[in-house]
Specification:
The strands form 2 sheets. A 6-stranded mixed beta sheet has the order 6-7-8-3-9-10. A 4-stranded antiparallel beta sheet has the order 2-1-4-5, with no helix packed on it. It is 34% helix and 27% strand. It has 230 residues and is of the alpha/beta class. The chain contains 8 helices and 10 strands. The chain has one domain: Rossmann fold, CATH 3.40.50.300. Helix 3 crosses helix 4, helix 3 packs parallel to helix 5 and helix 4 packs across helix 5.
């Protein structure tokens, strides 16, 4: 099976001397969904920031068979869509439609094509009714859907989801899970939510002090590390 992501020997040290990653080997198959477990400070966020070049450490990173480099950075960022834990970090335009069209415009689409693509993905995530609403007037669940729409409008092959159920009530979490399961992209899901991981992913990786301490079947890994946070 082709690899969406292939990483070998990834190391990263912050300017203050903190060794955040210490020899990470990781792969993500095309269409696969993988959960990243680990305590706060274990290296998960630092790791995912390398997937689209926000951080650059030592080691090799390939995304969709392209080695990450200065020359491929723009292409790779179009392949990897990141949905942040706090949707307010991604929503900044006056209306929902403008927000979702912003990315396609930056890709070079015409205004008409960008708006058409934005309407299409907003319909897909169940937010077609909110085109002219201001993002800050939306509920937490609606904001999350719009943030996901903004990423999908860039037509990525890989989705990186950082704690996607944070701030959501149980019914909204269930609706979001249904949406995420319907998306065909390969997914890297950073989460403390074991139930979400069981429902959305088949494989898990456990980070501990900048290393991968274990990986394998989601349920087996949850049991091995007693990972029952939610």
């Amino acid at each position: 099976m082709s690899k969406a992501i292939q990483i070998r020997g990834l190391r990263y040290r912050y300017p203050d001397g903190t060794q955040a990653l210490n020899g990470i080997d990781f792969h993500l198959d095309a269409g696969e969904s993988v959960a990243l477990f680990g305590a706060n400070g274990s290296g998960k966020t630092t790791f995912v920031m390398h997937l689209n070049g926000l951080l650059r450490g030592e080691g090799s990173i390939e995304v969709c068979s392209m080695p990450l480099s200065d020359e491929t950075l723009e292409q790779i960022r179009s392949k990897v869509g990141v949905v942040f834990q706090d949707s307010d970090e991604q929503l900044f335009m006056p209306t929902v439609l403008e927000d979702v069209a912003f990315g396609p415009l930056n890709l070079g689409l015409s205004p008409d094509d960008a708006l058409t693509r934005a309407r299409t993905v907003l319909k897909r995530v169940g937010m077609a009714h909110a085109l002219e609403r201001a993002p800050y007037h939306l509920s937490a669940g609606e904001k999350k859907r719009v943030a996901i729409a903004g990423v999908l409008a860039m037509d990525p092959e890989i989705l990186v989801l950082d704690e996607p159920t944070t701030f959501l009530d149980p019914p909204t979490r269930r609706d979001l899970l249904t949406l995420l399961r319907s998306l065909p992209q390969a997914k890297v899901v950073v989460t403390h939510d074991a139930n979400l991981a069981r429902a959305l992913t088949t494989r898990a990786v456990f980070f501990d002090q900048g290393r991968i301490a274990g990986e394998g079947d989601v349920i087996e890994l949850i049991q091995r590390f007693h990972w029952e946070y939610s």
